[in-house]
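Long-time lurker, first post. I've been practising inverse folding by hand and with some scripts of my own, and I keep getting stuck on stretches where the structure tokens seem ambiguous. Below is the full token string for one chain I'm working on. Before anyone asks, I'm not after the true native sequence, just a reasonable design that respects the backbone. If someone could post their per-position residues I'd love to compare against what I wrote down in my notebook.
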């Protein structure tokens, strides 16, 4: 998570999203508690990720990533999302973290020189970050836990959960359904 939630000091909320409901609630930490919790899907209810024109890029990237993972027969991955409030000097055109970093490192003078609105913040680093600035918040995003293959064990788990939780959504489904469900979650929770 460190590679997605960086820098952690200003992050106000963290979520591990799978696009389902069974076992997807975490009791929030008491007010003033030093505990840093990663919340889940059901904790996200009523919230929206405000991206404006960057939403199109995120949806396309999610489509590419989830299709790739589906082709590898992978499931049970999560979309990690962190919220960070923007300071006043970080809001408005030319003030996004990606643009300011490119300007200081590469001498870029305008956002159009970046080529694309959304880039990895540190492309040469082993854990490059996807960062999107909304009007009030900065969002850190990343897919994690990419190692679970849909084999016999997961197929049996799916059968058991279908019997145990009829009519509810849970994480163990076919890779195609898993990819579609996570994409639909992002589509529903972004503007």
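-- Answer (accepted) --
I ran through it position by position. Result:
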């Amino acid at each position: 998570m460190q590679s997605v939630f960086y820098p952690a000091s200003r992050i106000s909320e963290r979520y591990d999203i799978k696009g389902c409901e069974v076992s997807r609630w975490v009791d929030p930490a008491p007010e003033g508690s030093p505990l840093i919790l990663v919340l889940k899907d059901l904790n996200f209810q009523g919230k929206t990720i405000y991206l404006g024109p960057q939403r199109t890029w995120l949806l396309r990237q999610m489509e590419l990533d989830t299709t790739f993972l589906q082709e590898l027969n992978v499931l049970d991955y999560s979309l990690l999302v962190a919220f960070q409030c923007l300071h006043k000097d970080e809001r408005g055109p030319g003030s996004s973290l990606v643009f300011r970093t490119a300007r200081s490192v590469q001498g870029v003078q305008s956002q159009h020189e970046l080529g694309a609105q959304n880039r990895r913040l540190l492309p040469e680093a082993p854990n490059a970050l996807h960062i999107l600035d909304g009007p009030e918040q900065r969002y850190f995003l990343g897919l994690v836990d990419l190692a679970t293959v849909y084999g016999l064990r997961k197929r049996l788990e799916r059968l058991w959960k279908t019997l145990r939780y009829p009519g509810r959504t849970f994480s163990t489904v076919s890779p195609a359904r898993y990819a579609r469900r996570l994409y639909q979650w992002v589509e529903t929770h972004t503007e």
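A couple of notes from the structure itself: Residues 2 and 8 are 8 Å apart (CA to CA). DSSP finds four helices and seven strands in the chain. Happy to go over any region you disagree with.
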